[in-house]
Specification:
With 175 residues, the protein is α+β, with helices and mostly antiparallel strands. Among the domains are: 4-47, no CATH class; 89-153, Orthogonal Bundle (434 Repressor (Amino-terminal Domain)). It is built from 5 helices and 8 strands. Strand 2 (10-14) and strand 3 form a beta hairpin. The protein is rod-shaped, with a radius of gyration of 38 Å.
Length: 175
């Protein structure tokens, strides 16, 4: 990849950086690119050091295989919900709160004051019109000695035998 110019019996080379005609060039690396440069331009890079008789080896086949397998694992999509369980508020939380409160003999006003909320808020919660925050659920559970949260396992969203794509049928509850 040398650029030669023939001048009456003498060959000159062209520096690949500045373009000057020079009698000799040096192979030099500049930003990992090998260029043939004149002596003045060679100071901007690192001279190529050629080992005599020993070819430089790249990574082994085993190392390449490990890198490819690692890359393949990184590129795979993961289902972040698979095998996970979570806690959710039970469907009839209002009825459970009302029953437990009455069993303890507490009025709405007394119980609401004991957990730090207003009577109107408690009546909305008991009517399932207001979903309480997790902190309030914890206070209610502690005060009444009941559990309002239930473990829900993630099913993956699709039924077996489907094509793998979500359909409206996957969301319809069958009774």
């Amino acid at each position: 990849m040398f650029n030669y110019i023939s001048v009456v019996g003498m060959e000159h080379m062209i520096c690949e950086m500045c373009g000057k005609d020079v009698p000799t060039t040096k192979p030099v690396f500049i930003e990992r690119t090998k260029l043939n440069l004149c002596g003045a331009c060679a100071r901007f890079g690192d001279e190529q050091r050629e080992s005599k008789g020993v070819a430089q080896k790249g990574p082994s086949a085993q190392a390449i295989e490990q890198r490819l397998q690692s890359r393949e694992r990184r590129m795979q999509t993961r289902d972040i919900y698979s095998g996970k369980e979570s806690r959710h508020l039970m469907d009839e939380y209002g009825e459970a709160i009302r029953t437990a409160r009455m069993r303890k003999g507490l009025s709405q006003e007394d119980f609401a004051a004991s957990i730090g909320i207003k009577k109107g808020m408690l009546s909305k919660i008991e009517a399932n019109d207001l979903i309480p925050e997790d902190k309030l659920v914890a206070r209610i559970e502690k005060a009444l000695g009941i559990s309002l949260m239930e473990e829900v396992a993630y099913s993956g969203g699709t039924q077996s035998g489907s094509s793998g794509k979500m359909t409206l049928q996957d969301f319809i509850r069958r009774e």
